[in-house]
Write a structure and sequence with these properties.
Length: 111
């Protein structure tokens, strides 16, 4: 193998590697762009589903709150019918907005 042939072969290999490296870089750049688009789409989809879930939970909590309030009203009415005497000057609502009669029952009527 003479020096000219070796130099030509080395140059040919370097050119092939440079072309390969350029194609690889281009394909990796394209792949990165595809993944960025896919992640953005997934992010939008996730955000939509979380928003829908939040709305669903708000409705569920409102329904539960209405049921608890209705139960509290029913319990207060039943307690008022059973004991005709008035409470000892205490407020009828607690800091959280529910009637003390309901809280008293939940605590085992410690008063």
């Amino acid at each position: 193998m003479d020096a000219t042939y070796r130099a030509d072969l080395r140059e040919f290999n370097e050119l092939n590697f440079a072309r390969f490296d350029a194609k690889l870089e281009q394909r990796l750049t394209e792949l990165d762009a595809k993944w960025l688009v896919r992640w953005a789409e997934l992010d939008v989809k996730l955000e939509q589903r979380l928003t829908a879930l939040d709305a669903k939970w708000l409705v569920r909590w409102a329904e539960l709150d209405a049921k608890v309030d209705a139960l509290g009203d029913t319990l207060r009415k039943e307690l008022a019918q059973r004991s005709p005497r008035q409470s000892s000057g205490r407020s009828t609502s607690s800091p959280c907005g529910h009637a003390q009669a309901t809280h008293g029952l939940a605590r085992g009527n410690q008063s």
